[in-house]
Specification:
The longest helix has 18 residues. The protein starts with a strand and ends in a 19-residue tail after the last helix. With 296 residues, it is an alpha/beta fold. Strand 6, helix 4 and strand 7 form a beta-alpha-beta unit. 30% of the residues lie in helices and 23% in strands. Strands 1, 2, 3, 4, 5, 6, 7, 8 and 9 form a 9-stranded mixed beta sheet that branches. The chain is built from 7 helices and 9 strands. It comes from Panaeolus cyanescens. Pfam families: DLH. InterPro entries: AB_hydrolase_fold, Dienelactn_hydro. GO terms for molecular function: hydrolase activity.
């Protein structure tokens, strides 16, 4: 499916009105100007919207989703619903929307910004991206989120917004250590413990966590803490641990960690989640509260 790209500069409140740039990648269906699609907020890693992030978002959009990019091999279309992604520029408080280089200086700069930005400002950006997607005439209002690294954490936090029906989080950093944002007042797991992922009413919600077992940024103890916190809070979640290192879906500058075959497999998994949750309107959820039978 064909796609086009644009952007919107949206004013913020926590940053004195300085706008956040939200990149939009949308499907194009010739001769159907009124076509509408589900939306996906794509949160970037610490390097903002780089080539790998844009290609990742473009692959989602080509499946028929409106993609909003948070600047911080295609699958066949048979049976796949259309989606539109949106990506915000994650470090708009500190510099423009251009990508940060994948070099030592760029890495240091991205990591510095990551802990200088207020957690509330990350949340505001996510809210603005969701608001923008919901307002677009070619988005039907059914919205999901995804992201990698820092973006995986932000996609997790986006799930606290009741309008997000599914979040697929790739190697989300800093959740286990509660070290995101200025002052290290990251309350992500506290909010899970307080039930903030359980109060979504009749909405269908799906949370998917994907980690590499060799990821030094999120060691086993950290992954175990995230999983235990989600399970103790009775949050419906799939937790995938694969044989990979950090940034294994980054198709350039991955320092030898990119696994194309594994990325393709997990992209298929993500699209199944999106098709099942935002791609279809199942109506209100009616919980049966049935215990699984112990049968062969």
């Amino acid at each position: 499916m064909l796609i086009n790209k644009s952007f919107h500069d949206v004013p913020t409140k926590l940053n004195g009105g300085k706008p956040v740039r939200i990149f939009i990648i949308a499907p194009v269906v010739p001769d159907y100007p009124q076509a509408s699609f589900p939306g996906v907020v794509v949160f970037s890693e610490i390097y903002q919207v780089t080539g790998p992030v844009e290609r990742f978002a473009g692959q989602i959009a080509s499946q028929g989703y409106v993609v909003g990019k948070y600047s911080s091999s295609l699958l066949p279309l048979i049976g796949i619903v259309n989606i539109r992604p949106a990506c915000p520029s994650v470090y708009h408080e500190f510099e423009g929307p251009d990508p940060i280089p994948y070099d030592v200086e760029g890495t240091d700069r991205g990591n510095k910004y990551k802990v200088e930005k207020l957690v509330g400002a990350y949340d505001e950006d996510a809210t603005l991206a969701i608001d923008l997607l919901a307002s677009l005439p070619n988005c039907n209002g059914r919205i999901a989120a995804t992201g990698m690294c820092l973006g995986g954490h932000l996609a997790f936090r986006a799930a606290f917004d009741s309008r997000i029906l599914a979040s697929v989080c790739f190697f989300a950093t800093d959740i286990h250590s509660a070290t995101l944002g200025k002052g290290k007042n990251d309350d992500t797991l506290i909010r899970v413990q307080n039930g903030d992922l359980n109060g979504k009413g009749e909405l269908v919600h799906s949370l998917q966590m994907i980690f590499g077992k060799q990821d030094t940024h999120v060691p086993r103890q950290g992954r175990d803490l995230i999983r235990k916190t989600l399970e103790d809070a009775d949050v419906p979640c799939s937790f995938l641990e694969v044989q990979a290192q950090h940034a294994f879906i980054r198709d350039e500058h991955s320092k030898g960690r990119w696994d194309a075959a594994l990325t393709r497999s997990l992209f298929t998994f993500m699209m199944e989640v999106f098709e099942r949750t935002v791609g279809r309107d199942l109506g209100p959820r009616v919980a049966r509260n049935q215990t699984a039978e112990h049968v062969c």
